[in-house]
Amino acid sequence: MSLPHHDHSAADHNRAHHRHSHAHRTFAWALVLTLSFSVVEATAGWWANSLALLSDAGHMLTDSLSLLLAAVAAWLARKPPSARHSYGLARAEVLAALANSLLMLAIVAFIVFEAMERFQRPPQVNGGAVMAVAFIGLLINLGIGWLLARGEDSLNRRAALIHVIGDALGSVAALAAGLVIYLTGWMPIDPILSVVVSLLILTSTVNLLRETLHVLMEGVPRGLDLNRVGIALAKIDGVRQVHDLHIWTLASGQVALSAHLSIAHLGEWPRILHEARHLLQDDFAIGHVTLQPETIEPQPLKRGAYVPAQHEQHGHAH
What we know:
The chain has 2 domains: about 10-215, Alpha-lytic protease prodomain-like; about 225-310, 2-Layer Sandwich (Alpha-Beta Plaits), CATH 3.30.70.1350. It is about 65% helix and about 10% strand. It has helices at about 10-50, 50-75, 90-120, 125-150, 155-185, 190-215, 225-235, 270-285, and strands at about 5, 240-250, 255-265, 290-295, 305. The protein has a 5-stranded mixed beta sheet. Helix 2 (about 50-75) packs antiparallel against helix 3 (about 90-120) and helix 4 (about 125-150) runs antiparallel to helix 5. The longest helix is centred in the N-terminal third of the chain and has 39 residues, at about 10-50.
């Protein structure tokens, strides 16, 4: 006989709703500022014939799209669970982070390609105009970065922040390129600095993409050891065995767990469940818990046994 139990408190949902509401407002403000200045910078870059400015404007334009995706995802994440989406739509933030990561990779590839063309035929660049516009862009990017950095940690926020950091680095590169061109007239500095900034952004983007894919593949969250959690559950008095243990990320800050616990007597289940829930929340910060007790044992079991996932038989019945 087995009775599954799922725990997801109203307090968890209220905290998540408040966090997503604040994130939605932050992304909206960042979107307005970024989109407005990207138009100004693109116009100035075209007039000054500067790849550094145009690439920075391209960053900011795509940042506008990334922030729009982030804002929409934060808005969707505020929606409560429904009959169709029992966990709600919090994972929209993860999908937005994935889209933004892929978009950033495309931008880096375009800037490097354009820089190669300019190495062969360096155009004339108006250094003074580049410096002035880049300095204003740097101030705006620092302000947006400050707004985003104050929010709670999430893949969605980190993806947007990487875009903004890329913009800030692009503004610094454009400022430096404008200064060198203004003082020396050496035009190749414009595409050189554009490539340097793109490669710096590439490292952060690849790391974020790897983590996002890990979440989408239901990987065990960073900082959690599956075997350690299983052994801790198996040490609860009355638990004979822990198996079919799975831990994954629903969305940023929301970790879920499911497991089967073999026990000797079903009458002990309320106490075991209470201890298990507190153990998982207090020691591992896991709030979404589904535990299934089992009293039918196909073979004698030692008290406190934990069966790692790699040792379980796939497709077995309980």
